[in-house]
Prior knowledge:
Layout: H1 3-6, E1 13-17, H2 22-37, E2 41-47, H3 48-57, H4 60-64, E3 70-75, H5 93-111, E4 118-122, H6 126-135, E5 139-143, H7 147-154, H8 156-161, H9 201-213, E6 218-221, H10 225-235, E7 242-244, H11 248-258, H12 277-283, E8 290-294, H13 303-316, E9 319-323, E10 331-334, H14 341-350, E11 351-354, H15 359-363, E12 368-373, H16 377-386, E13 390-392, H17 399-409, E14 413-415, H18 422-435, H19 437-455, H20 460-473
Helix pairs in contact: 2-11, 5-6, 7-9, 13-18
Organism: Hibiscus sabdariffa (roselle)
Family: Belongs to the UDP-glycosyltransferase family.
EC number: 2.4.1.-
Amino acid sequence: MDKEEQRPQTSPHVLIFPLPAQGHVNSMLKLAELLALAGLKLTFLNSDFVHEQLLRHTDVVSRFVKYAGFEFRTIPDGLPDEHPRAGHGFMEIFETLESITKPIFNEMLVNMKPRVDCLLADGVLGIAVDVAQELGIPIIQFRTISACSTWAYFAVLDMIQAGELPIKGKEDMDRLITSVPGMETFLRCRDLPGFCRVMDSTLQRISEDTRKNFKGHGLLLNTFEDLEGDILSHMRTKSPNIYTVGPLHLHLRTRLCESDQTLFEQSPNSFYKVDRSCLSWLDKQPKGSVLYVSFGSLTVLSSEQVFEFWFGLINSGKRFLWVLRPGIMPEKGDEGNNIPVELIKGTKERGCLVSWAPQEEVLGHGAIGGFLTHSGWNSTLESVVEGVPMICWPYFADQQINSRFVSQVWGLGLDMKDLCDRHIVEKMVNDLMVERRDEFLKSTTKMAKLARECVNVGGSSYCNLDRLVEDIRSMNSSLGDF
């Protein structure tokens, strides 16, 4: 009997490390549960701040306690507790992760028992790649954004070399960007993230971290082949080992049903208290009549922007459910002083405002006919799965590219980027909900069907998850440097 046959068949120890942000933690917790269902031993590493929020607002500990070998651990993110961790100020976290979190993380991995056999790290955490290389731990990176956004980030250096970046001043924002393979005919300056408009450290860091994504043991993406296959084919010229396992929330739902477990009675992975009263309100509304409005967990709006959206919604004459998150309008607090009487009256007649909603359930409700969204990737995928057409108003980062693909490539909605005007809002709501409703429903229904098929037995995402689990099982720390 050789040494390989004599080696005990123990489950490898995987450490999962997300960026401390709502969307990243949400999708990586879903991935963690999928891997836990497969029997892997997992440690999930949250920042102290994030873990406290999850303990306060979710059942996350009781949900994972049933998985043998699963453990939560925490680490400082370096920001003071009072830091808002939202808006463009969120980017400050990358500096503190490098200066404060990184050495603590290194020491943690050195002393962790049992040893970590595989690091499954958020693809924007360059510190995780550095530590993995130093300690010789195999790393698989997970980009929680779309494949199209990841590919555009990868191409930043190519755009700079081609003279297409940085965007100079107030030049024509509809100028085509031609140096991103697969996007030559439709990607415009305005479809790139705001940090592409200035040659600074953020642009450099994003580019460098994305290039690192293609150098590990593999690259994991929350997407599916039928949605982003064309872009994925370009990405595989740089990294052939790409695992597409999304949409993760639907994939998890499918695997839980296979194992006779339930998902719908569990709380979302939310940093905010969920207001479920909106579901009762939706129960009273006609089928497909409500526009759901949510700008995610990081968007910050001015009072002027809030009122422009609000007037547009009221003037459209459509029913709406709007998530106005605590902190979304920091300049005047969350009370909303001096609200015009017509907004109060119109909202009372056909609107519902909540501070946070159970979004997956809301989008799956029969009363929802459209989604005005910031185009975060989780929100986009959740809308795709439920066949809900979108109006996209991206805020920052990957959201600009996502919104272009939603409208121009996939035909799943409208792109309203760079505009915040009540008349535009009113027109787009009516275009989505009335004038072009049948057109969009045809496209969204088709894509929703493809999403369901990919996570069922034999589907591309289902098979890729099985392949990922088997590849992780084959790992140990002697695989070399990555």
